[in-house]
Amino acid sequence: MSARQHRLLTLMARQENRELGHLSMQLGHLRRQELQQFDMADRLGQMLDQSAQAPSQPMTPGQLSTAHFMGRTLVQQLEATRSQMARTRQERAAVEQDLSQHQRRQQILQERAELSRRAQHVARAEAEDNATLPRRTR
Prior knowledge:
It contains 2 helices and no strands. The protein is mainly α.
C-alpha cells in the first residue's frame, strides 16, 4: 500500500472520529431531552390525578367550567408530551444505530491504516537492510 493510500485511510479514520464525536453529542442531547420529556409527562400526570379528585365542596358553574378546561388542557398537553417522547425515542434509536455503524467503520479504517503503516515500516526496514548488505560478486 502506498503512502498516499495510507494517508487517505488515516484521513478517513479521522473523519469518522469527528463524526463519532458529533453523533455522541447529538445522542447526549436526545437522552437529556428524553429525560426532560419523561419528567414533564410525570408532572402532568400528577397534576391530572390531582385535578381528577372530587372537590371538598360544591363548585359553581364557573369553577366547574374552569376545572373542565384545565383537565382537558392537561390531557392534551400530556398526549403531546407522550408523542414527543415517542419521536425522541425513535430519533435516539436512529442516532444510536448510526453511531454503531460509524464506530465499526472507524475501527476498520484504523486497523487498515495501522496494517498499512506496519507494512510500510517493514518494507522500509527490508530496503534499508538490503542496501546495507554487501553485494556478492561471482
